[in-house]
Amino acid sequence: MSPLPNPLPDAEAQCRQLAELIRPQLHKNPALVGIFSGGAWIAERLKTLLALEEDIGMIDVSFYRDDFAEKGLHPQCRPTAIPFDVEGRHIILVDDVLYTGRTTRAAINELFDYGRPASVAMAVLADRGGRELPIGATYCVWDVALQDGENLVLGRQEDGQLAWRLENA
Amino acid sequence: MHNPQLNEDGQLMHLLSVEGLPQKILTQILDTAASFMEVSARDVKKVPLLRGKSVFNLFFENSTRTRTTFEIAAKRLSADVINLDINKSSTAKGETLLDTIDNLVAMHANLFVVRHASSGAPFLIAEHLQRIGRDDVHVVNAGDGRHAHPTQGLLDMYTIRHYKKDFTQLRVAIVGDILHSRVARSDIHALTTLGVPEVRAIGPETLLPKHLDKLGVHVFHDMNEGLRDCDVIIMLRLQNERMTGALLPSAGEYFRHYGLTPQKLALAKPDAIVMHPGPMNRGVEIHSAVADGSQAVILPQVTFGIAVRMAVMSIVAGN
């Protein structure tokens, strides 16, 4: 795991690298599902870069989170939208940062309420370690070490370009 | 003034009335409901949010639609739902309301859905829970007396937003027995808070409360005049069971003046929607051709009501 580079890497270039990691699996006709909000933006990029015809799915895991008892419902949740039949499909979940694995767990649970996929893979731009569940990325561009209290946030700029920023909790 | 519905952080703990809730919270409920609409369209119409929680439906007054939609909503949130038929139980044996509540809290109730003929009963329960230090138990008002029916008000707002998108350009008419209607009261507060510039009340003088103008509502006794250029028409049921004294000559006379017929509907905007909280009295406040017509959104209101109740229960239970 490498320390944080300065400046932060180009997220758009990382999307292209991620697309190349997924490309060998296209014969399985995988379906992309992005986790709001960063994962959904990346999934949109991957759809274009891989020239996929099918619309991507989008998941908001608010209703499946494991911290509802402590934090309540997230004040801004958006509708999950899966525009294809999950049953029997090879699903690639897409997120920006893989950290504790709890969001991924919630997303997998939600996905299974739509049907039984043939397989679920996980594609992320960044893996910052710190896992609290036995979950791993199938495709990952960037292994990075962060300090406690540091957060890597993917934003979308006014011109639509994706870019990383570092936030301190 | 302290608002018993909100906690110290201004988050919704109980839903007792639309009155006094900030626009931000109303919008949060409507947005959350939009996410729950999607859940109701799935094969597995269930999310695990309230798994292990117990929701008690306390209906001290009869209701089929509201109780059923609350029950469906709670079940779709994975809660355990207990329906108490109060009229046949302890209350009939003389137990007080708050003793009933204490007993149900001892059974580990997490949320009470309360309908009561007395205005203020849900407030009383919420205050009692606070007094005994149970801020982990929540109350949702499912209609109290003439006072409020906040989830109906919110589902009406969801319906309007669904069809009209923007509240700030609308002319909304509420027609009928506004005096006895808790729905009308909740609707008026919600419409005003969400920025609807013109709310009209249409009905005979005997069925309109005094001082409506103080709420910013325009009053019309002539329905033809009141419906002109409206975007939304909310019809109210003629509340026979709450009618005391002779406020009206007859149902037939009422229909002639205040029943929504295709001819009267034509005075509103061509794309106006017609709403009704149900149950409808066909031929009393609404003509069948309107109730079953293309502008009626009365059945979608019922579907939206489930999502709105899911949103309300999951928000209060989390705060």
Topology readout:
The complex is a heterodimer of chains A (169) and B (319).
Chain A: H1 11-22, E1 31-35, H2 38-49, E2 57-59, H3 68-71, E3 90-98, H4 102-112, E4 119-127, E5 139-143, E6 150-156, E7 162-168
Parallel strand pairs in A: 1-2, 1-3, 3-4, 4-5
Antiparallel strand pairs in A: 6-7
Helix pairs in contact in A: 1-2
Chain B: H1 23-39, E1 54-59, H2 65-76, E2 80-84, H3 97-106, E3 111-116, H4 121-131, E4 138-144, H5 150-164, E5 171-175, H6 182-193, E6 198-202, E7 217-220, H7 223-227, E8 232-235, H8 251-258, H9 262-265, E9 273-275, H10 288-291, H11 298-318
Describe the model.
The complex is a heterodimer of chains A (169) and B (319). Chain A has 169 residues and is α/β, with parallel strands linked by helices. Chain A has a single domain (11-66, 82-163), classed as Rossmann fold, CATH 3.40.50. Chain A has four helices and seven strands, in the order αβαβαβαββββ. Chain A has helices spanning 11-22, 38-49, 68-71, 102-112, and strands spanning 31-35, 57-59, 90-98, 119-127, 139-143, 150-156, 162-168. In chain A, β1, α2 and β2 (57-59) form a beta-alpha-beta unit. In chain A, α1 crosses α2 (38-49). The relative contact order of chain A is 0.20. The model of chain A has no long low-confidence stretch (mean pLDDT 95). Chain B has 319 residues and is α/β, with parallel strands linked by helices. Chain B has helices at 23-39, 65-76, 97-106, 121-131, 150-164, 182-193, 223-227, 251-258, 262-265, 288-291, 298-318; strands spanning 54-59, 80-84, 111-116, 138-144, 171-175, 198-202, 217-220, 232-235, 273-275. In chain B, α1 (23-39) crosses α11, α2 packs across α11 (298-318) and α5 (150-164) crosses α11. The longest helix of chain B has 21 residues, at 298-318. The A-B interface holds A 60, 62-64, 68-69, 71-73, 75-81, 109-110, 113-115 and B 11, 28, 31-32, 34-35, 37-39, 42-44, 46-49, 314-315, 317-319.
